[in-house]
């Protein structure tokens, strides 16, 4: 199950719902039609549970029982597409939800009062996400929440509503519509809190923290590996220089303190500077060991 589906199923399991959700769902997923009796309304979704939830919203809010239809998609995925079909009181519903103007092209944005009522705004955002929202799986490490709108001005109104809740929302226009999106993990978690998806928020945060912890460990391991490689490279350079001294002027020509350092370095190529220091008869500081190793390298360079 995708993370998006997990969020949506948590939302539809909530006891509380209202007309503002239905308003957003109709605006984003609804289409009008005509039959002999008048206007009809069709709302489509690929999720059977969401279709039943929309049915329940109509039943709860307007005491009508829509018809649920479905057909199979013709592509290789062969997903079912469900349609909640309303053929009664459509004009009354659209008028009550203040959607009629938008559907007939007079107004395609969001009702201005939605920005003034926090509870209505939360419900509207919940409905909008149920209709066309998606969230990229946080395990991917690339955070993105999107809500698709047919109309650019509605996408911009959604962004304004999200701005009201202090979220850094942006919009982008496509050929077939527009997208309102969030890209910061903190904004996405705040959005989940706003629409009441607390379990999904906790899961998102947990996955994010686990990824960050793994990344920190990997960075630390990479740094340690790089440091080990540098140590080995420096060690081999010094060993080669000591061998050069041994084959030319001999270690006996060196001061005793340099002979000791040289012998330990050659006999223990994997020793750290601290381990070399601890192996000396009279231990030195690490800077003292480094100083003598540099002397050995200088002597070899001068040969």
UniProtKB/TrEMBL annotation:
Residues 17-99 form the Sporulation transcription regulator WhiA N-terminal domain. This is Probable cell division protein WhiA. InterPro entries: Homing_endonucl, Sporu_reg_WhiA_N_dom, Sporulation_regulator_WhiA, Sporulation_regulator_WhiA_C, WhiA_LAGLIDADG_dom. Belongs to the WhiA family. The keyword Cell cycle applies. Keywords: Cell cycle, Cell division, DNA-binding. One of its GO terms (molecular function) is DNA binding. One of its GO terms (biological process) is cell division. SUPFAM superfamilies: Homing endonucleases. Transmembrane segments: none annotated. Residues 122-214 form the WhiA LAGLIDADG-like domain. Residues 217-300 form the Sporulation regulator WhiA C-terminal domain. Involved in cell division and chromosome segregation. The keyword Cell division applies. It comes from Streptococcus pseudoporcinus LQ 940-04.
